[in-house]
Amino acid sequence: MCRPVVENTGPNQTASHASLRADLHSHSTASDGTTSPADVMARAAAAGLDVIALTDHDTVAGHAEAAAALPPGLTLLPGMELSCRLSGHSVHVLAYLFDPADDELTAEMAAIRDSRVSRARAMVSRLAELGAPVTWDQVTQIAGDGVVGRPHIARALAAAGVVATPADAFTPEWIGAGGRAHVTRYALDPMRAVALVRAAGGVTVLAHPRGAARGWQIPDEVLADLAAAGLTGVEVNHPQQDAEQRARLQELAAALGLVPSGGSDDHGELTGFRIGTEIAPPGGYAALVGQAAGARPVTG
Ligand SMILES: [Zn+2]
Ligand SMILES: [Zn+2]
Prior knowledge:
Layout: E1 3-4, E2 22-23, H1 37-46, E3 51-54, H2 63-68, E4 75-86, E5 89-96, H3 103-129, H4 136-143, H5 150-159, H6 190-199, E6 203-206, H7 220-228, E7 233-237, H8 243-256, E8 259-262, H9 284-290, E9 298-299
Parallel strand pairs: 2-3, 3-4, 6-7, 7-8
Antiparallel strand pairs: 1-9, 4-5, 4-9, 5-6
Helix pairs in contact: 4-5
The chain binds zinc ion (ZN) (2 copies).
């Protein structure tokens, strides 16, 4: 039985807010992670976390399995990572505790997922034209039940021996942004994402503003605009952000009234099983939960 709670009430309940270990960014096979939602929960507990957020790309499909598999003492923060685009650049917005049945939000999530599939198909066709021996069947087999994405195509390219590792596929030669076989897809304006999630009772956190953007870093002014539009927090702790970037983001968060957050962005095998290696700064988790009204965290 799962019941909604605000605080962790399991064996680790003696943990004060300050020492609460909350990894607020992870992926499962519901999107492009390599482990099932249940396994993500098991690994979160094994890593000694008090709270784990499941934030698959543009879907909440993994939440039910994760909630059903929650080990005692672990709290699940239901979330997702919305694919957005600003001035041609990819921007990721984490959303938590929104009403998963909200009409407008679910329609946008479906539009993004549908476009992901048609775009992935177009990329596979281009790869075939370029002579890479990769088929749509192979890609969907790798994706399994997850939302098809570039990581799955990258894995198919590596399996076919076209590139040495999946990471090598993200270049101009293959499926990197602007690459020979790259196709853009539908994505939300981040301002609209923030407004949609807020209208559904949830809170938003700008994901890895200084990392993972393949050469582009989100400017301070954009962060300020998003804060003015109702963004709740910013991801300070992320494996692709160094100490200097984290210090700057912490300063910006304080100046803009944003909640400093953090997470491992674990994708299982794809990123080296890093769950629990990054956590939200003290107080971050409670501050996010305190501002959300669309859903509640779930405990095992
Ligand atoms: Zn991301
Ligand atoms: Zn992510």
